[in-house]
Predict the 3D structure of the following.
Amino acid sequence: QPAKKANGLSFDFKEIEAGVDHTHHVAEGYDAKVLLRWGAPLFPDTPEFDPKSQTPEKQARQFGYNTDFVGYIPIDGSSDHGLLVANHEYTNEELMFSGVGIQDAKDVAFAKMTKDLVDIEMAAHGGAVVEIRRMNGEWQVVKDSKYTRRITAETPMDITGPAAGHDRMKTCADTTGRKVRGMINNCAGGVTPWGTWLSCEENFNGYFWGALSDTHPEAKNYKRYGIGTPAYAWGKFHDRFDLAKEPNEANRFGWVVEIDPFDPTFVPNKRTALGRTKHEGAAGITNSDGRYVIYLGDDERFDYVYKFVTAGKVDMRNRAANFSLLDEGILYVAKYNPDGKGTWLPVVHGQGPLTEANGFKSQADVLIETRRAADLLGATKMDRPEDIEANPQTNRVYVMLTNNTRRKDDQVDAANPRANNAFGHIVEMMPDGGDHASTAFTWEVLVKCGDPSVASVGATFSSETTRNGWFGMPDNCAIDSQGRLWISTDGNNAKATGRADGLWAMETEGEMRGTSKHFFRVPVGAEMCGPFFTPDDETLFLAVQHPGEAEEGAPVSFDNPITRWPDFKDGMPPRPSLLVVTKQGGGKIA
Ligand code: FEO
Ligand code: CA
Ligand code: CA
Ligand code: CA
């Protein structure tokens, strides 16, 4: 358990004021510096960023847009030298391109999108691998690194595991059902003990346009994933994103992708054994018996919490042996019972209702329609499961449930205890006997989020939590090497709360359990992403996603942004950026 100070808290930093303005704020005594921003040249020959002369070719050699997950993979165990892996989740065309229009008028924006602009967007998606080094206390990007890589919506990938090669995965361009181009809407993720990066496709539905007839064999499948209401104009120029022309392409997205960042020629693997959902993240833990267990949230109102348990064991002496681990194992979905106990239900073909009578002829069918399989199993419908992290010191597992304002009074259950849940909550799970492979667990609600001073909200932060310390909409999270929980949020910049999103530290042990403190906040319009610590806890990586994005109904544009963070230069739009936080004079983030 983390060491406690005299006041009973394990966190020492001086809390910041909650609020919202044009820039970011970090706790006193810490530095938060931009390391990489959208458009940063990554290769020695990449030209300087100019938002008005952007091209798809340049974007594919620059840092992409809207990082959600950030991971740090040490080189030779170092906390001062390693590979940064970052997802580029989505794009804000209204802030990237002059004259394209506001976020809410999608039809207007679509009409203005040219093929070049679409191709820039596709190149701004995916992810990046960047070698970084801390010299004299300052983090720097290694510019001529052999590891530097950009992955985009066009990068060739392999499909592996039980759904690979299935007829439902085949398209005109890929008659094998084993090759796909690109990963899209990659939200959070994970890094494995064998040094690979897990990157999770989340809201992939928004990239497909056109429609299938109601009688098409994939019609119900696609409806369950919300496919058919496009948010992007890609289908206008790329047939594979038009369902009428390529009805199976959407089955090839919604997976967890494994990437070896140490080999820039590595073909990323879409690991179908982990299921097809709107994957928020994929944080894992090596179980006491050596098997690897990955916790997975499906970020949708009334969707589920999953875990995947590998069949094989992690082998730290033979790195290559681990590269097939994620193709074989058992996927489970969680059922939370009212008595504080719970069960992991196997999502396995032939078991329970997952049979041909219900349209599942094989495990491939089960995985392609993971959500429908979980519906039939009777899993617990949650309030948008986002990031999940297991604490290796206590084996407790923390599930961020971001919000669900559509839950009605008669849909309330023990694990989702509030109707109209605007601020979300966190569920703590304890695997039976500390065994992450067990199908039994106990659970309790760690905290119901929101403003504790408003009785009707029903928030349950400890009484030691200050007016700055509460938060809503937990999204990503991290556990530092001392076993302490850090939570980043998405949605607090709503006018209702008067505060920006940010990072909060939360006590989980002892008398101060449920006490939260505010460490960092983002500029207006942004969401807080990352967080990720170096093994020595001296550096914290944070991502500021979509700075300047419109709040509901408020038009913003490239030419008239509400902030120009972080450059604050005329003509330069706001730029999503990745930050490094360190303590002034050195030392752990405390
Ligand atoms: Fe991309 Fe679940 O947030
Ligand atoms: Ca996000
Ligand atoms: Ca997220
Ligand atoms: Ca979110």
Observations:
- The chain has one domain: 25-178+194-202+254-583.
